[in-house]
Amino acid sequence: GQQVMQIPQYQHVQEGEDFTTYCNSSTTLSNIQWYKQRPGGHPVFLIQLVKSGEVKKQKRLTFQFGEAKKNSSLHITATQTTDVGTYFCAGLYNFNKFYFGSGTKLNVKP
Amino acid sequence: DTEVTQTPKHLVMGMTNKKSLKCEQHMGHRAMYWYKQKAKKPPELMFVYSYEKLSINESVPSRFSPECPNSSLLNLHLHALQPEDSALYLCASSQVVVRGTKNIQYFGAGTRLSVL
Q1: pLDDT over threshold 80, residue B96
Q2: Count of CB atoms situated within 10 Å of the CB of A55
Q3: Is A100 in CB contact (< 8 Å) with chain B?
Q4: How confident is the model at residue A2 (pLDDT cuts 50, 70, 90)?
Q5: Do A43 and B90 touch (CB under 8 A)?
């Protein structure tokens, strides 16, 4: 099946520091979505990016979709302890299959 | 209402048992999904139903048998499972995936399955 590579696997930051996670696909994506999963919880939708080069912001979160629609990033400015969790990208292929990246587990020290 | 309800929350079963996982949504979504998630791993797509018809089976072993009785319900029938099948089973729903639509997946809380 398709693979969506995501790095880093883990990130430990001090509260107030920035955080970035990256996703990369070997083939072109129809769109990409980002999800957050808190410990013991289930994935919760954050954003969907559809257009080449698209940038979207949600408060302290900035999402980018690459020009070739093969890569994406999530950047969090000034992390807070409530940002703790695992962030997954999910690439949509051929408009019918979602494949999740391996996830980046974020830990924020107060 | 953006809720996807999964039952049971926890399930322990022996390798010879037959059990079923249930998923329900009332958002009018016509695409429903089963995912399997092992600890510290991402969700892995198992099945996709579109308009109550199975559209994708990601080469899942036949001991997992999905069923979509109507547009609101999705079941996963389990039979003769192996210990390695122990995982969190997640159900999700979305609008049917077509070009340009916002096909957000709403996930249920999952069923944590242990196979002894």
Answers
A1: no
A2: 11
A3: yes
A4: low
A5: yes
C-alpha A1/C-alpha B14 separation (Å) is 31
Per DSSP (E only), the strands in B26-115 are 31-37, 44-50, 53-57, 64-70, 73-79, 87-94, 106-107, 111-115
CB-based contact B23:B6 (threshold 8 Å)? yes
Q: Which chain B residues are within 8 Å of A101, Cβ to Cβ? A: 42
- Is any Cβ of chain A less than 8 angstroms from the Cβ of B101? no
Which among B50, B100, B105 is the nearest to A98, CB-wise? B105
Task: Identify residue A16 by its one-letter amino acid code.
Answer: G
Q: Would the CB atoms of B108 and A45 count as touching at under 8 Å? A: no
Q: B104, A33: Cβ pair inside 8 Å? A: yes
pLDDT tens per residue across span A29-73: 888 999 999 999 999 999 999 999 999 999 999 999 999 999 999
Answer yes or no: do B99 and A30 touch at CB < 8 A: yes
* C-alpha distances out from residue B96 to A96, B5, B31, Å: 9, 19, 5
Distance CA A100, CA B108 (A): 16
Residues A33, B105: C-beta atoms closer than 8 Å? yes
Q: Which pLDDT tens digit goes with each residue over A12-31? A: 999 999 999 999 998 898 88
Query: Residue B46 has which token pair?
Result: 């198992």
B100: tokens are 């340009």
- Please state, in angstroms and rounded to a whole number, the distance separating the CA atoms of residues A62 and A83: 14
